[in-house]
Amino acid sequence: MDYRTWRHAFKLDPAKDISDEALEQLAESGTDGMIIGGTDNITLEGVLDLLARLRRYAVPLALEVSDVDAVTFGFDYYFIPTVLNSTDVKWMNGIHLDALKEFGHMMKWEEVATEGYCIMNPECKAAQLTGATEVPTKEDVVGYARMAEHLFKLPIFYLEYSGTYGDPKLVSAAASVLDETRLVYGGGIRTAAQAAEMASIAHTVVIGNVIYDDLKKALETVDAVKAVTSPK
Amino acid sequence: MDYRTWRHAFKLDPAKDISDEALEQLAESGTDGMIIGGTDNITLEGVLDLLARLRRYAVPLALEVSDVDAVTFGFDYYFIPTVLNSTDVKWMNGIHLDALKEFGHMMKWEEVATEGYCIMNPECKAAQLTGATEVPTKEDVVGYARMAEHLFKLPIFYLEYSGTYGDPKLVSAAASVLDETRLVYGGGIRTAAQAAEMASIAHTVVIGNVIYDDLKKALETVDAVKAVTSPK
What is the ipTM of this complex? Predict the structure, then answer.
């Protein structure tokens, strides 16, 4: 299933432990895709472990690349974040250049999608790492959304609230200026109701931490999202 | 004439003086387009002056935006540089965000083209300004070209040698990895032979400084480029 049609995705952190039973429930939940990605302590071993344990299921798998040393063949998609509100070129295109110099000649570009990240929670690890430490205003978010769609023609604009639940008005503002680029919402969804609310605004809703805290709640988000009509 | 078919363009610096006679000769030379752009002392008055004096001719006009305060309606195209080898996010997407916040709601996006710049001459003003002070290697250039085409899907990859004549082998290396993105070459072309050489490798050749130093030589580059078959 093409990531451009995903409504719901689970994001698994290769640095965290998870049981085979939980993985099976997630993979067979009806979710549209599973994203493997995290910020800290991402190792090739961790990525390969999840890949091996998930590949038996039919669900599409995407690797969100945060560390070039933890990249492996075998995924359906490779999501490449570029942090639009980083203060350091390293996170905008620096590590990307290193990766392109090493792997550029062997990439299957149809499997690659660049994600224009806008990090909304300055307290989160990703914000601290990339220097995205100012809270973007609504005007900033709309500007970054237009940048993603029109200047860089990115397939994905990713509003990352990481651990906090976002402001639906602000997410709507981003949605209102996107036509071609997909709006992905991630962060702080802990209930079916929250998942449904964001699914009514964003094209794709990503469920992360609650997987590790309350698997049942996490699984309930699948049907909640599927019950909502996708925005245009 | 669509900029995606330009083989030859003149670049005029709004901070430099030029006579009406010279402008007429350039505009009616058979060039495919005129780009208004520079690094230092770009003012709205300077831009409007060139616009007013050139708009009577049929040649397409593009404004290469370096300063948001010097942007005006009336051009056919707005080229937006993003400096891929800058060390400061300001030149990658920072001033872009400011511009999008101010003008994003009124842009005609079909007139806008983002140029992925790779600045090859660390001594030039643009390099000093943007912190692009390391000389990119061949591997860097190939990496940036792939970044422009695949990660950011930019319509233009611009190798800017600014005042120095480039290495055809290195320009060829960039060309060899581009399929959708146009390769634009600029810098140091002072003769018809040099223009022809770069036109055999790059899609578009930009002629700048020699306009102000030796107009006759500048005009000779038009036929020289047109005599060369465009690379794929």
Answer: 0.93
